[in-house]
Amino acid sequence: MYKGKNVVAVVPAYNEETQISKVVETMPDFVDTIVIVDDKSRDRTVEIVKNMQKDNTRVVLLCHEVNQGVGGAIATGYKWARDNDADIAVVMAGDGQMDPADLTALLDPVVDNDVDYSKGNRLVYEDAYKIIPKTRFFGNTVLSYLTKIASGYWNIADSQAGYTAISKKALHAIGWDSMYKRYGQPNDLLVRLNVLNMTVRDVPIRPVYHVGETSGIKIHKVIFTISFLLLRLFYWRLWKKYVIQDAHPLALFIFFGTGLLLLSFIFLLRVLILWAMDGSVPIMSSLAMMFSFSVGAQSIFFGIWMDMDKNRRLNN
Length: 316
Hints:
By secondary structure, the chain is an alpha/beta fold. The chain contains 11 helices and 7 strands.
């Protein structure tokens, strides 16, 4: 128990035979249950966890029959925490990259009912750019900015940090079966929390690397995959929050601006085709292209500004 609250640690694990023991051994005593979700590992992860269960009654093992990705493993752990009446669920990866010393800082805002969800932010740590691998730092910075736009949480950074704490209220409000199951899970969750008007806070944490972890993430692929995911989530959030739940003019600005940008692209294609065929640029099409682009971009920027103001209270 932590300050009278039941705490469940969700530990997604995939091929973590060298790391999982250390994660369990260093787990703070105030964590009531350690739910390890094996995502169809191909090594000895399950065997090692079963051996630990003999001496550690806190450890619960859940096994996926099919690999679902880290997001799927986290969702499985969250559902267990929800169904077993946890007050707070925290996520600590099975690779040992999350410092247990930072856990109380993540728990306190949720325990004190200041926020519904707290997440770690490694980017604000002193010399983070020296500790975090350069490609990771660059990719995370880009995705963090795009996530601000998609989620509406403009004071949140380090969007890919998986070290988090979530309240009982949020655990029961989110539909975990529809959660994105791969590396974009933290981004998807932030968008869903915003639709539900949940408060979120960043908590500075120490970045941990080179502790024996292995990563199969290819930044050049992930950054494009998640960027398209965020684009889809952005419009989904606008539709759910500002059209279905509460009619708000900012949705009109952004949808109208998007339509004009698409129209400007059509005019651009027309200009390029006629230029290639006739060797001259059609004046009217060029003017129409520039007009639709400028008005569309301004409309979108104005809508985003309104969205920032609307969500200010949720950025705790």
